[in-house]
Amino acid sequence: MESSLTLIPLIFLFLLAMQLILAISMRDADALAAADQASIRAISGNFAAADRELTLDSPDRFSNISLLIATHTRKIPHLLPGLTQLLGRELQTDGKGVAIIENTR
Fold first, then answer.
1. What pTM was computed for the model?
2. pLDDT tens over the chain, length 105 residues
3. Are 86 and 100 in contact (CB under 8 A)?
4. Is 43 left (phi over 0), alpha (psi -120 to 50) or beta?
């Protein structure tokens, strides 16, 4: 009986630690994926619908510089039952990647 009383909090603590490790790892991987996709799209010129482009003023009148901001969103798997109800929202990552678009005219 006493061993089960100590085992339940240890299992909960283990699952909580694994949930945090999983969330941090997925966040870092999504940030890398978003940066990679932003670079690829900035070079190829094929933008996704969710991408944002910010135009920057350049001192050179023959060169227009823009920033491409790409996002990569993914849901995090649930290891702790009831965590989404406790937080009141879904668990997800939002990775953002930025690349420079050089438009020469």
1. 0.75
2. 677 788 988 999 999 999 999 999 999 999 999 999 999 999 888 888 889 998 887 777 667 788 999 999 999 998 888 888 888 888 999 999 999 987 754
3. no
4. alpha
In the β-sheet with 52-56, what is the strand arrangement from edge to edge? 52-56, 63-75, 92-104
**Residue 74 forms beta bridges with which residues?**
93
The torsion angles phi and psi of 96, rounded to 5 degrees, stand at -120, 140
The closest alpha carbon to 101, from 56, 60, 61, belongs to: 56
User: Residue 11, Cα to own-chain centre: how many angstroms?
Assistant: 28
Q: Collapsing DSSP states into helix, strand and coil, what is residue 68?
A: strand
Angstrom distance (rounded) from CA 83 to CA 32: 26
CA–CA gap between residue 10 and residue 19 (Å, rounded): 14
User: Which residue, among 99, 90, 92, 91, has the nearest Cα to 48 in the 3D structure?
Assistant: 99
